[in-house]
Amino acid sequence: MQEKHEVIKERLRFVRERMKTENVDIFVVFTDDYHMSEYSGAYFADREYLSGFTGSAGTLAVTQTEAALFTDGRYFVQAQAQLEGTGITLMKMGCAGVPTLTEYIRERLGAGGVLGMDARTCAAQTGMEWIKLTEACGGRIKGDFMPVQELWKDRPAFPASKAYELELKYSGESREDKIHRIYQEMETAHAAYHAVASLDDICWILNLRGDDVACNPVIMAYLLFAPNAVYLYTEESRFTQAMKADLAQDGIQLRPYNQIYADLRSLAGKKTSVWMDMKRVNLALFQSVPETAECICKENPSVRMKAVKNPTELANLRDVHIDDGLAVTKFMYWLKNTMKQYEAGREWNVTEVTAAEYLDNLRSHIPDYKELSFDTISAYGENAAMMHYHAEKDHCAVLYPRGMLLVDSGGQYLRGTTDITRTFALGEVTAEMKKYFTLTLKGMLNLANARFLKGCTGFSLDILARGPLWEQGMDYRCGTGHGIGYLLNVHESPNGFRWKHNPGRNDLCVFEEGMVTSDEPGVYIEGAYGIRIENEIECVGDGENEYGTFLKFKPLTFVPIDLDLVDTAWLEKKDIERLNAYHAAVYSRLSPHLSGEELEFLKQYTRPVE
Predict the structure, then answer these.
(1) Dihedral through CA 240, CA 242, CA 247, CA 248, nearest 10?
(2) Count of CB atoms within 10 A of residue 346's CB?
(3) HSE (side-chain half, CA atoms, 13 Å) at 427
(4) Mean pLDDT of all residues in 474-495
(5) Predicted pLDDT of residue 506
(6) Which residues are CB-contacts of 345 (< 8 A; sequence separation ≥ 6)?
(7) Does one domain contain both 191 and 322?
(8) How many domains does the chain have?
(9) Measured between alpha carbons, how far is 283 from 127 in angstroms, rounded to an integer?
(10) Which of 213, 231, 249, 298 lies 20 to 30 Å from 522 when distance is taken between CA atoms?
(11) CA 5/CA 88 separation, integer angstroms
């Protein structure tokens, strides 16, 4: 069997031959599907197939003489390891001296140069920028250059899961009311049509869910709001007869998945207007709108609507977080006790994978559980320095009663989506580990306890989480937090926390009551260890006065912080008060559901510290 890096080299040679044949100078391979999804189904894994890099974010650029993979700080360690021997250079996005992908293309695209891609996997905003770039040098984009289609013989099938409806007791708002609100926004924007391609927006609007993307309960579809009808472009086979009747009753007409391209082109010659979100539609779809139609380029109205959870969704989320928190707390109890059973010389098979499986099994027994919200990250020791490390049965670390285990996990339930990270001491840890764990905790608590005026974005608040680490000359190469969907994507725009603008993201809106966001600072020391502490927090009102409306956060996540890793020498009085208040809340919510040794364990790990 060939080594993996040799397979990658062969695939790149094939691609370069096709580039010569079709006069393509640079070939760009995106991670995205046709809907600009962060996480795509296996059918769309072209970038992984050509590079060997398995991370959820990254873009591959190939010329005749070189290849480069662009990815962000979450994946630097992982990408460096997976690209070794392939001849592909890692471009660490955001680091000094590293060009952006656009700069990289500009430097290498000569006069009359051709940039090849599958335009269905390129965001319209990026594509239009690159069209200007290529035209400036007398070149062009070849949007139907797809050599991987010929090369990848055993590509997985296109996703076509069955859809199901989210009942009103979970959604809190009918699709009729959501559609009405969308049309009101269209009227204000003077848009005759509104094309929606983002899968989570479509599923939220229509109160539909599916299983087309692992851990993301969506269906592959497009949605078009027309003056007198709403068209849903997807396979009819997804729906029962009763569901099709319900859709029809609500004024929604089903059409074949790809027909939206022709339907938009059919507007040629008409003086009309189409609302499209340039970050959430692909270039090919955007180019289907004829020049005679005005394109209103604005964020989908459903993005903000979806981000502000309604009272029903919030009540469900508060409820499901108790069940989810109990699962993680029981896992913590099992993990700590299992480590005490270790004996040198005795057979021992507790690994990152078996630990993850134990937690996954606990979640699966929660009554309305659907699936995980992402593959559980169980990372021991130096593996935790890779933010999105993925352990596999034949390639994972054995756990021993020393060092730390980072576990980032979550579930999809009818009552909502959860996302939590805890870092656990498995035994003896160093003073340095305790120091950075405690500073991470301090930052997490700072942000969770913020009181701020309405108008603040994640830019305004991020320093509360990073400050304790910055004071020590430390940082983490990612945002501090992200929005979270409701039985949808675990990463959801437009709310989030980060300290600098990232043009590729849209997660720094003004905070509003009802938004749910993660709060997850961390420390990642390559080759040594990783630390992350993550809670979900709900934005709530906190009074008004002559200065405006004040907001604050309330925790949704209730799971003990591992006190075995806390060094109070790094905490101030207010930090200790906040930690004790949080643990008192954890105990009050979880203790009625525990008994015996598990209850005693909870008492021990939520005890007040001094």
Answers:
(1) 120
(2) 7
(3) 12
(4) 96
(5) 64
(6) none
(7) no
(8) 3
(9) 6
(10) 213
(11) 10
Pairing between strand 252-255 and 230-233?
A: parallel
Asked if 400 and 342 count as a contact pair (C-beta separation under 8 A), the reply is yes
The answer to whether residue 84 sits within a structural domain is yes
Helices (H), ranges, 365-476: 431-448, 458-470
Task: Answer for the pair 531, 514: CB distance below 8 angstroms, yes or no.
Answer: no
Place of tokens 């080299």: 9
Three-state DSSP class for residue 321: helix
Which 8-state DSSP code applies to residue 381? G
- Domain holding 193: CATH number? 3.40.350.10
| Percentage with pLDDT > 90 across the chain | 95
167 has pLDDT over 90: yes
Q: Is residue 159 part of a domain?
A: no
pTM, entire model: 0.95
Query: Has residue 157 been placed in a domain?
Result: no
Residues 6+ apart with CB under 8 A from 120: 34, 282, 283, 284, 285
CA–CA separation, 339 and 355 (whole Å): 11
551 is written with which tokens? 């907001």
Write out the residue range of the structural domain in which residue 104 sits: 4-151
Rounded to 5°, angle at Cα 34 from 28 and 39: 85
pLDDT tens readout for residues 14-64: 999 999 999 999 999 999 999 999 999 899 999 999 999 999 899 999 999
The two structure tokens encoding residue 439: 């500073």
* Shared-domain flag, residues 294 and 185: yes
C-alpha span between 496 and 469 (Å, rounded): 19
**pLDDT surpasses 60 at 1:** no
Find all residues with CB under 8 Å of 432, minimum gap 6, and list them: none
